[in-house]
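On clarity, I found the account of how folds are encoded harder to follow than it need be. Since the whole study asks how a given chain folds, the encoding of that fold should be made plain. For the editor and my fellow referees, an illustration may be useful. An entry of this sort, consisting of the sequence and the corresponding backbone structure tokens, reads as follows:

:::
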Amino acid sequence: MNHITVHGNISQEPEIRYSGSGLAVLSFNVADTYGKDDKKKVTFHSVTVFGNLAENVAASIKKGDSVLVSGRLETDEYKKKDGSTGKFTKIIADEVAFSMRWSAVVADKTDDTMKKVAKAFPNSAMFEDEDAF
């Protein structure tokens, strides 16, 4: 069985595009950091998501978000400038989810819900949508 699950931070803004048939295709990278201090290493995983899941993920995630990605590994070949063949491995995602290891995620951002969150987590920073830009 070809299955992989990766936890990390989105390292660039996700990019959505559409195929000629209208299929949504989302691409982004996940930075997986492990080790400590001077032995810390980062592995970048290229992720591709298709269809409705791609559109849902594109509307939900942004650079810096901590996510879990589950799917299968796929290897593609490409031609290098020197004419030789190179290989590129990516994750074809079946699921993408926010990681709540380091922070809470609030899907319902109505005023009532955000007031409840602020009460439950008094040290968290709150801002209005306009403040984010």
